[in-house]
Amino acid sequence: MTDTDTQPRSKGRLTSRALAVFGVTFSFAAILVSGSILFFAPKGKISRAEDWDALGLGRQDWSDLHIILAALFIAFSLWHAALHFHVFKTLVFGSRMSPQGHRVEALIALAAVAGFTVLALLQLPPASWLLELNELFKHEFWAR
Predict the structure, then answer these.
(1) What are phi and psi of 102, to 5 degrees?
(2) C-alpha 65: how far from its chain's center?
(3) Which of 24, 34, 39, 125 could form a disulfide with 66 if both were Cys (CB 3.0 to 4.6 A apart)?
């Protein structure tokens, strides 16, 4: 055992990288919760008529919270991307260890985002199925 193994650790300093990672993670988790609640919530007219709430917050409260948390997520994500831009650049353009980079993975991810964007805009399956489920909850489930 060395002397360094027996000495107590000193308090580490605050790092912007760790703060960015935790900020992205926690803000994403929060918008996931608020978005899930809003997905299943009744539409505004029904929620007001029934005085609907979830966890003590009404629909408008959840909507406001979701917007604020999404803005926070965007800010943390941009900060995280700026801090890790060199990693992103290496993944796309390659390095000495991996000269080809990960262009195929980048193209697959880009195609998935573009494809689901088009499917949502054209209201085609499977995106339309999710939108229909949302409409079912907003208009039919709560109207009973």
Answers:
(1) -130, 50
(2) 14
(3) 34
